[in-house]
Every structure is written in structure tokens, then in C-alpha cells.
Amino acid sequence: MEHKYEEWQQQLVKCIRCGTCRSVCPVFQVADNENTTARGKVKLLEAVSEGKLTLTTELQARMSKCLLCKACAAGCPSGVKTDELFLSARRALAVENGLPLAKRLAFTGLTYRKLFDLGLKIGSLFQGIVFKDAPDGRGKVARIPLPGAGLGQRRIIPPLATKPLRSRLPEINKVASPKARVAFYTGCMLNYVYPDAGEAIVKILKAHDVEVIIPAKQSCCGTPAFTSGDYQVGRYLAEENVKLLAAGKYDSIITGCASCGAALKHEYGAIIEDPEVKQLWEELSKKIKDITEFVVSRGIKQDLREVRAKITYHDPCHLVRGMGVSKEPRQLLQAIPGVNYAEMKDAAKCCGAGGTFSMAHYDISRTINDWKLDNAEETGATILATGCSACRMHITDGLGQRGSHMKVVHTAEIIAKAYGLD
């Protein structure tokens, strides 16, 4: 493990303890505890590297209190790559202490693609046994208080689709005169939870005369696994996806989920070890594009239909800081006739979802979410658009909890409506 500490030292020595991270860390702003800041975590890892502290389960719990929103890394004046550092630390801690049984089973399940797919399809059929419709009808709540993941606090979750996206659409979606050929990496959420958004993405691409291939054998991007420290599963999924996508002759790889896109475009570089697969990924990563990024690059259509609505936009962390996509969704929304676009305060601030973070630390994530919702509601918008399914799920829960009528949709669904494709 010494070599790992040497790797950490390259980042640890850069930290000048300025505390800039305190001003941007959502978790610190809730917990008001120094060990939740990037600076505090850096100090703890420094103690580990110096032999003053061991990889304890208590340290593992502290390292889990991070949304991996990349705000500290983006704002660090010394250029400390805190996001990469903390992922590396989680890996070391998982190797030393293991992960909870539920996570181990879930992550292992991700590696059995057909079994995972079958399990979710069966789950969609029987979800009514455990869950019922939320009072406002925008999701489901547990019939009885369940422990963990906020389900005992009437957390609103989206239902599993009775027919996943990849079962709705053919693998090859042809157009009469194709100007480009792309692969659509759907990931899990667009496939199993929000297939309507996935269909909107395919319709938009076809409207731009783009042939869309939806690889049937694509796997989960692995983000839940490797961000929890399970690099074995994360690496397996990353390498399977890279080999699959690299085998096709595509002009671009389109994503509609911020976390999937950031993983494919950047984070796989720190996970993949096989030299041949790493080389494939280096070329593949140049082709990864968010749907809004791709559409803007092709040229926004001029004959857009009117969409009369006041809309605001939430920047997902993995889209704005992970993929560098921010202006494109705004350009598209503002180009639609009838749209009254209202920019919310701190639009790029984390909503508190953080993938599995909101399951493990629901109270903290809800407080962070409330700040986001306050800013969204201050705009007077009736629709909040975003490009991340996890953000959509978390923000919808918060709106439902406070009885707000604001609707959360994927940006692509609004674009498809403006294109006359709904």
C-alpha cells in the first residue's frame, strides 16, 4: 500500500490549507465539521500516509461523507485533485475494511448483465407490493416505513418502467439519409426508470438525420461501484463497455446521463489497467458527448415549435464540472419560442443527490436539496430541466415533500417537444 501513499502525496503536498473548499462544500455547510471539508480529509489522509493513522472503519465513514460533486477540486487555487484523491482513498479503505453486504451484493449483480436486467423487469411487475403511489402521483413511497435510504421518511422514488427503453426501441434506429452514425449509451436510469427521456434523445438524434445504435450488450457504467471503492467491479464494467463501444464504427457516443458521461469520458482513465483497453478508451473518450452538446454542435433547428412555459435549469455536477457542459442546454432552452427562461441562483451547486450518498445520508442530502429548491422556486418557473437522472429523482422527491407543483424533466424532453416529436 506504500505505493498508494506515494501517489496520494503528489496531491497532499499541494494543499496549502487555505480553506477555500469550506466555502463550496455542501456537506460542510450542513454539518459544520472540519472533517467533512476537503481540507479536513486531506489532513486525515496525510496522517495515514505518515503512519499516524490507520485505515479504520471510522475513517471510511468520514470519507463517505462526500458528494464527489467536484466543487472543491474546481475551486482549489492549488490545483489539488481532491475528487481523484478521495476516490483513491475509498478504494484503499474498501480493500482494507470491505463494503456493507448490501453493496457487495448489488455491485456483484451489476456484472451479470442479463440477470440484472431480468431482476429489474421482475421488480417492475411486483413493485406495487412494497410501494404505492405518492399523494401527488409523481412517484412512489413505501407502504410501510422501511429502514435506510430515506424510505422510512416517506422518500418519493420513481417507479421502475414496466418496459425498459432498450426493450421499447430496436438496436438500430435508421434514418433515410444518415449524416452521422452514433451509439447511444443509455446507462441504467434512462433504461429502467426514465425511458421516455431516452426515447426523446433518440427522436432528437433522428431528427438531425443521425442513425442511432443502442448497443444491446452495454453494461452499467460502474459509477456506483467505483465511487464506493469497489474498483474490481468498476474496472470490469468499464472495460466491458469500452470494448463494446470501441468495436463499433461510431462518429460519437451519446449520453443522456451526467454520471455515465463523466465516467465514460474521464473517470475510466483512473480505473482501467489493461494497456490495450486503456488505449481503446483514450480514443473512445474523445467521442463521448452529452446530447445537448451534440445537438448544439450539429446546429439548433430554426423551425422550432412554441413551448409556452417558464423554465429554469439545474447543472448536474458531473455534467458541468465532470464533462464541461453548461452553456449548451441553456442555448437550446433559450432558443425555443415561448420559453421564458429564468436562471436560478447557484444553478451549478450540487442538489445533494450524489448517487448512493443520498441513500446513506438522506437527512444531509435533503437539507442540501432544500437550498436548491428554494433557489428554483424563487425563479417562479413551473418546469426545472436537468441532464441527470439521479438529480431528477432527488429534486422530484424534495418538491413532492414540500408540496410544490414544479415539474422536473430531462432537458431532451423539452427539446423533443419543441421539435414536434412528443
TrEMBL record:
Q: Which residues form the signal peptide?
A: none
As cofactor, the record names:
[4Fe-4S] cluster
EC top class, as a word? oxidoreductase
Please list the residue ranges annotated as the 4Fe-4S ferredoxin-type domain: 4-36, 57-86
* SUPFAM superfamilies in the record: alpha-helical ferredoxin
Recorded E.C. number(s)?
1.1.99.14
**Keyword terms:** 4Fe-4S, Electron transport, Iron, Iron-sulfur, Metal-binding, Repeat, Transport
What note does UniProt attach to the cofactor annotation? Binds 2 [4Fe-4S] clusters.
A Pfam family found in this protein is: Fer4_8
Its UniProt entry gives the catalysed reaction(s) as:
glycolate + A = glyoxylate + AH2; (R)-lactate + A = pyruvate + AH2
Q: What does this protein do?
A: Component of a complex that catalyzes the oxidation of glycolate to glyoxylate.
Protein's recorded name: Glycolate oxidase iron-sulfur subunit
